[in-house]
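B., you asked whether I could sanity-check this one before it goes into the benchmark set. Here's the sequence:
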Amino acid sequence: MVILTFMKLIKAMATVAGFTFVSRILGFIRDILTATVMGAGAVG
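And here's what the prediction gave me:
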């Protein structure tokens, strides 16, 4: 019973971590696109 509850907790944590990771990647892409539209180029 304890193992089953622990596994549910791990699964929930992995789900939140996964969605957080996807959200960060999509936010980064959004920032790149916004910068491109506003005329900012790559530094260098």
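One thing to flag: The chain has a mean pLDDT of 89. Otherwise nothing jumped out at me.
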